[in-house]
Design brief:
By secondary structure, this protein is an alpha+beta fold. The protein has 2 helices and 7 strands. Strands 1, 2, 3, 4, 5, 6 and 7 form a 7-stranded mixed β-sheet that branches. It is globular, with a radius of gyration of 17 Å.
Length: 132
């Protein structure tokens, strides 16, 4: 098991390598969320922009967020709850972090020459969860 962060683009533009980072599965979702936001900010924002976000974190236009999962909760009906094992940050391309299993070297290389990786996605639980 590991946390895997990949770059995702909506317009199918050519990515030299989709792999952004890998982290130990022992890291908490909160820690990974902070890492992913930091990685996106350092890649896409200038030093003066980062400084302004440091002074006012709410000014960051692309904070990292958890995915969601639908659940039936007693007394409230169906609602969306944070799914802390999916984290997104940014906008085209954006970072997508999630826990995966069987992370390994694959066949071939990415366009940047790095070795391809393969992994097995861990699916979210069937929705909606029933917590009534």
């Amino acid at each position: 098991m590991a946390w895997l962060a990949t770059w995702v683009t909506a317009n199918r533009q050519h990515l030299e390598s989709p792999i952004a980072a890998m982290f130990s599965s022992r890291k908490s979702p909160e820690t990974i969320k902070d890492y992913i936001e930091f990685l996106y900010l350092t890649k896409h924002f200038s030093g003066d922009e980062q400084l302004s976000f440091l002074a006012d974190p709410t000014a960051n236009p692309y904070p990292a967020t958890y995915g969601t999962i639908r659940a039936n909760v007693s007394g409230t009906g169906e609602t969306n709850l944070p799914w802390r094992y999916q984290i997104m940050c940014g906008h085209n391309p954006y970072l997508y972090a999630r826990r995966v299993k069987n992370l390994r070297l694959g066949a071939g290389t990415y366009p940047d020459g790095s070795q391809r990786l393969e992994w097995d996605e861990i699916p979210k639980p069937a929705e909606p969860l029933d917590w009534t």
